[in-house]
Amino acid sequence: MIGFLKGKVISRTPERLLIDVNGIGFSVWITLNTYYSLKEEGDVFIHTYQHVSDEEISLYGFINENEKRAFEMLLKVQGIGPKLARNILSGINADELTDAIAKKDMTRLLKIPGVGKKLAEKIIFTLKDYWQETVKTEHEEVWVGIRSSLTNLGFKSQEVEDALKILKEKFEKIDLENGVREALRILGGRVKK
């Protein structure tokens, strides 16, 4: 599997890139989001997905991991292959797609070229649990990180749990850095020795 490419762009269109990686030219299918995010010239770093079928081996390129993850999740939907997944991500960025799925926003999905009512329903039905589980898992990891950070600073287990309880009541969602900062405020800003 080819996970990424780093090299010089030889040519580009809104659909494809030709990248020179140490003298080897890789033709990579890309989304419009990736196309518009790339510099006009110079070196690029592209996350890739390698698709192997009876007819061909294709590379699909993405500007970031989030877009690649969205592409891979779209492939889990029956009836969506790599070309359609690429087209979908050319009509909506990965964050908007995640939001539309989480909110079951059929109207937004129907604005994407190539997506009709049945396919929009399939996308939501197939991926709604995955997105919810992914968000839930990522959020749980933040709480574990906050707990670990406070423990490493020398706070007692009960103090940490009390601070986490207050944080969870105060914030539905928080990132690690702000979570630790807020927890330290709750704990009075004392760093234990």
| Low-confidence spans | none
Count of beta strands: 5
Shape label: globular
Work out the helix count: 8
CATH superfamily name of the domain at 1-63? Nucleic acid-binding proteins
Major sheet details: 5 strands, mixed, barrel
SSE ordering: EEEHEEHHHHHHH
Strand content: 15-25%
Strand line-up in the sheet with most strands: 1-2-3-5-4
What gap, in angstroms, lies between the N and C termini?
48 Å
**CATH architecture assignment of the domain at 1-63:** Beta Barrel
CATH topology tier name of the domain at 1-63: OB fold (Dihydrolipoamide Acetyltransferase, E2P)
Q: Which CATH class of the domain at 1-63 applies here?
A: Mainly Beta
Helix content: 40-55%
Mean of pLDDT: 87
C-alpha Rg (nearest Å): 21 Å
Q: How would you classify the helix and strand content by structural class? A: alpha+beta
Quick structural summary:
With about 190 residues, the chain is an alpha+beta fold. It has helices at about 30-35, 65-75, 80-90, 95-100, 105-110, 115-150, 155-170, 175-185; strands at about 5-10, 15-20, 25-30, 45-50, 55-60.
